[in-house]
Amino acid sequence: MLRLIEILLFLAPFIFFAAWRISATARGPSPRIVAASIVLLGVLLGALLWFQREGALPSGSTYVPATLHGGRVIQGHGAPP
After folding, report:
1. What is the CA radius of gyration of the chain?
2. Which of 1, 31, 41, 64 has the highest CB neighbour number within 10 Å of its CB?
3. What is the DSSP secondary structure assignment for residue 56, as one 8-state letter?
4. Whole domain around residue 55: which residue ranges?
5. pLDDT per residue rounded down to tens, the chain (81 residues)
6. How many domains does the chain have?
């Protein structure tokens, strides 16, 4: 999901430029397109920040990789130092 957001953030300027070129008249882009692009970029940035914080380990913890114990996979996790 994070990769999708990164790709959308990368493509956003190109998409907005194309939308502007298609819909622009001599007076420039419509206020709707400007407002929609600002809202969309804000939503994408908010989602990117939320996903970054959601997957982060607590401060000072060390990552313990996934292990196999008795035929069961123990998920990777953060452990105190």
Report:
1. 21
2. 41
3. P
4. 2-79
5. 678 888 888 999 999 888 878 777 667 777 887 899 899 999 989 988 888 777 778 788 899 999 999 999 999 888 887
6. 1
